[in-house]
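Limitations
The structure tokens in this dataset are predictions for the assembled complex, not deposited experimental models. Users should treat interface geometry with appropriate caution, especially where small molecules or nucleic acid strands are included. An illustrative entry is reproduced here so readers can see what is and is not provided.
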Amino acid sequence: MAERNARRLTAAARRAQLIDVGRAVFARHGYEATSVEEIAESAKVSKPIVYEHFGGKEGLYAVVVDREMDYVVRRIAEAIATGSPRERLEQAVLAFLGYVKDHPDGFAVLAHGAPATSASGGMSSLLNDVAERVGDVFTSAFKDAGYEPKAAPIYAYALIGMVTSVGQWWTETRKPSVEEVANHIAALAWMGLRHLPKQPTLTSRR
Amino acid sequence: MAERNARRLTAAARRAQLIDVGRAVFARHGYEATSVEEIAESAKVSKPIVYEHFGGKEGLYAVVVDREMDYVVRRIAEAIATGSPRERLEQAVLAFLGYVKDHPDGFAVLAHGAPATSASGGMSSLLNDVAERVGDVFTSAFKDAGYEPKAAPIYAYALIGMVTSVGQWWTETRKPSVEEVANHIAALAWMGLRHLPKQPTLTSRR
DNA sequence: TGAGTAACTTACCCGCCCGTAATAACATGG
DNA sequence: CCATGTTATTACGGGCGGGTAAGTTACTCA
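Predicted assembly:
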């Protein structure tokens, strides 16, 4: 086992590299418009390697999506673990926008949606899975507060839609810092347009 | 000019039919995964006709998108023509959700986004164009109200994201009426989670 | 009725892209 | 230095889908 030549990686290393490269390419062109050749070429490798590791385009895509979903859900779950409802909201928004900033490719993949999986419409964006989990949180919170639990999904999807849409816009401009953007979104969601502060700030420590 | 046989339409009629059919197919599979053959077959016509009328897949898609954009923007513009800020917000949400209900295929096309036009990322969803127009409205309103106009796009994208995301969810469940959903969204956007009413209603007449 | 035109079809080319079979380069242990 | 397993490549089959050329059917009007 001499010094590792640039070419010829171990199976695990190559696999990891392909996931990274695949995520980047999928992020640029979307699932359909991405060819396995482009991924292979982008990884300085020939096609069959991709097939050996993932069985095909769909396999690689599934792994990329799965990992990204796991990551973003964990990141948000940590953010809303403690604090008052308002603080949790703020931290959730901040966590999501932080994810958008730190992992733009992953966010693009999740936001662009799936390979139109066979039967029926099915929702486009993968973030709906996230939305459903958020919906569960809202449902129980609504019950405790005496609200109609049937309306919980509406608010869950509304919140997810807010951060997703703004996140996509932010990846293009990158102008105000994510913290500043998070301030505005959290203010909108918590106070509403009616009581919008001129200079919103988070209430949470940190 | 006898009674029109089912086959053999006039150029204008065929063109109109192809736009309808194309919108439906694009809505189901997205741009990339849609083949011209499928559109032609779905319209009981052979491929070259599509090419004669629109020059190709992209041409038809462009026409479909353009018409849909025009329609939805006009519909929203009418809704926010008059009233207090709050009433305008409520009517805008209601108008958008009404569009989602009445034109699910058009909404799906707009929500799913574009053919990943060549160079650069570019935003996926076509609704960003709508968002920009909304942003203009917000910018001037913000100036008048003494708010930071730089933050206007944030709120514009947040609002668009809300209704888009909820709209997508609604097309799947179709459970609460659009009016009811609009009540909730408008309440969230105007009052915020802080002062959420138990049973939200619109303030507007009608 | 027959020329002329508008609507439409069949048949094809070509390139791309998924997926695979056969094979080669490299490493490592005996 | 050869045996064995692992990593990678070249080369190809097959199919689909965009786009076009040439020919065909129906409809109109003098």
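Some entries come with short summary sentences. For this one: Chain A touches chain B through 58 residues (CB under 8 Å).
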